[in-house]
Amino acid sequence: MEQDFMKFGLAAFVTLLVVVDPPGVVPIFVALTKDETAARRRAILLRAVLVAFGVALFFLIAGRSVLSYLGVSVHAFSISGGILLFATAMPMLFGQRGGLQAPEAEECDALKDISVFPLAVPMLSGPGLIATTLLLTSEAGGDLRRLGAIGIALALVFLVAFVSLYLSARIISRLGQGGINIATRVMGIVLAALAVQYVLNGVTGYYSTLLAR
Predict the structure, then answer these.
(1) How far apart are CA 11 and CA 13, in angstroms?
(2) Over the stretch 5-24, which tens digit does the pLDDT of each residue have?
(3) What value does the mean pLDDT take over residues 174-180?
(4) Higher per-residue confidence, 63 vs 95
(5) CA gap 80, 87 in Å, rounded
(6) DSSP alpha helices (H): ranges in the chain?
(7) Of 202, 203, 200, the residue nearest 192 (C-alpha)
(8) In this predicted model, what pLDDT tens digit does every residue of 112-136 receive, in sequence order?
(9) Which of residues 108 and 7 earns the better pLDDT score?
(10) How far, in Å, CA of 80 to CA of 127, rounded?
(11) Rg of the chain's alpha carbons, rounded to an integer?
């Protein structure tokens, strides 16, 4: 019994780590925070990780019930997340943070905050993580120990994400402004492709569900 519990916890950690892919978020974080001070970057990172962890815990505890009550599928999350991410990617192709940038300097700082979107959602806690968390919750079958193991796995995954993104500040200092501008455009292309993939996954998953009925 104890061995099965350890296997489940380890499998949950590995699966969630692969889905979140902290190293993969590093270049995106670097591109999005290129104009921020070190202190501001740390604040954005901390808030993004905490918000993402909170979202993951919410879906661990009550996600399936809430989605069922609202009649919203994970596929709908995937499509909406892809559309929002695409809106972020397009301005990056021109070396800007458009959409994330406040239109006027006098605007409230909250409008410039990228910690919630797109870092926390959907980059760190996106449709993939939500779907995986819901799947693991189903496999736990109401076992409180297994649900606790998923919670611990999530905490460890976001700890890895925090460390990975925190160290990215060194990357920023070494690349220089020219390198950052190039990285911004490249990551804009990657983000656009990722956004389209989210939409395709959502559409494919939706129609697969219909055909399976």
Answers:
(1) 5
(2) 788 899 899 989 988 888 77
(3) 68
(4) 63
(5) 11
(6) 2-20, 22-32, 38-58, 64-70, 74-92, 127-140, 144-166, 168-212
(7) 200
(8) 568 998 889 888 998 878 888 887 8
(9) 7
(10) 9
(11) 18
**Which residue has tokens 């569900």?**
209
User: Distance between CA 55 and CA 171 in Å, rounded?
Assistant: 28
What's phi and psi for 18, nearest 5 deg?
Answer: -65, -40
Tracing tokens 């819901």 back to the chain, one arrives at: 134
Return the number of other C-beta atoms located less than 10 Å from residue 76's C-beta: 16
Closest to 123 (Cα-Cα) out of 100, 142, 94: 100
Tokens representing 159 are 């700890």
Quick one: tokens of 207?
Answer: 């129609």
Q: How confident is the model at residue 149 (pLDDT cuts 50, 70, 90)?
A: very high
For 28, 103, 126, the CA distances from 79, given in Å and listed in that order, are 20, 27, 11
pTM of the model: 0.71
Burial-class residue 160 by CB neighbours within 10 Å (0-12, 13-18, 19+).
Answer: middle
Q: Any idea where the domains of the chain sit in the sequence?
A: 2-14+23-212
Q: Could you give the 3-state DSSP secondary structure of residue 97? A: coil
